[in-house]
Amino acid sequence: MDPLHQDRLRVVRWPWIVALLVIFGIGVALTVANGWQAHAKEFLNLLVRWLHIIYGIAWIGASFYFIFLENALERHNVRPELSGNIWTIHGGGVYYLEKYKTAPPKLPPYLHWFKWDAYLTWVTGFLLLVIVYYSDPRANLLPPGSSLAGWLAVFIAVGSLVGAWLVYVGLSRTPLLHRPALFLWVGGVLVAGVAWALSQIYSGRGAFMQVGAMLGTIMAANVFFVIIPSQKALVRAAQKGEALDPAFVSWVQLRSRHNNYLTLPVLFTMIAHHFPFTYTHGANWLILVLLFAAGVAVRHFINVTEQQHHTTLKTGGAMPYLLVVAAVLALGVFYLTAPKGGKAALSGEPVAFEEVRAIINTHCHVCHATHPTQPGFASAPAGVMFDTPQEIVAQAERIKQVAVDSEYMPLGNITHMTQEERSRLGAWVSQGAKGPVK
């Protein structure tokens, strides 16, 4: 068997691919015949998001695992051809692993390659961008009232993905690559600049997701254009009995480590849309940068700790101050995103539930209903419905968070909720969020 041509996905033969295409065709036919376009889009969102999480977990998990191996290798008293070895225990079994400096004198008949998890994470992530943002840029990508053409917004977004990779490649070809701290600072400043620029073009949610997609593109492109081709070169050299420069291996390893440091920032952007208080803030780009910095600090602490063979915090060798830095950054975000003005006054004109319900029926119920009437919604977002007084009262604090404090809802203010209406909702919640008078 040729180690270069072994692939976990080779089990997917043409008959199975044809079968999958037929099933997809049936789904398309059912959608067209029954007018299920909104439902189909929502279902695709679910399916692709699920696959994105599955492959993302596999890819990031592999990154964490192999960086751990590299950090924790025992490098003393090993054979000359080895970089190190490690004993581990998991799932009731004891494992012994050895790492070669380049390649073993004779390659085994089978090598396990780690690439499709990265590729499919990016593919499913891009499909999600198309489904949620690019297919209808007015809904989630652009802010309310933007004069930018939808096609141009998408063009800029896709171009930024390519541009991010090209800028990273350019930086990697400078002496900065061998000065990690300076490389990090320059990269951080560039990310901050891009985050600010995109926040001027897109909605907060769209800007957050676009920055995350740019970092994810750098990571996936590192695998596709650098890491995998380099590993293939290593295998070919070993097959021919040629020596490979260990410096070349170290260069590839550095790209892998870059990916490792980007994992926590990218993971944040994957969950950020659940927390509107982050991306609806006036300085949302700064919030993003601060949380990115906290993620990088935590990741570096973990890596240094592993290199110290799990040195305890008491020794100081594991750079525990990084955890303090991350905590201070998180505290800063907590303070910046907190509702300003203290507790809302309870005094003033009482707001009757009937007035609140009228506002919600006008601006919220079109989406948040058992049967939404807003085009493009087949079901209530997040399962939140305002069909009954009990449902409205139960969601009072959430209503205040998203419609009053962050003003994230209605989405894109598509129903034109006024500031006066938001104030009335906030006053109702502050006065105890009382239901209808019986």
TrEMBL record:
One of its GO terms (molecular function) is heme binding. The keyword Endoplasmic reticulum does not apply. It comes from the Bacteria. The chain crosses the membrane at residues 12-30, 50-69, 116-135, 147-169, 181-202, 208-228, 261-279, 285-302, 318-338. Signal peptide: none annotated. Residues 39-329 form the Urate oxidase N-terminal domain. Keywords: Membrane, Transmembrane, Transmembrane helix. This is Urate oxidase N-terminal domain-containing protein. The lineage of its organism: Bacteria, Thermotogati, Deinococcota, Deinococci, Thermales.
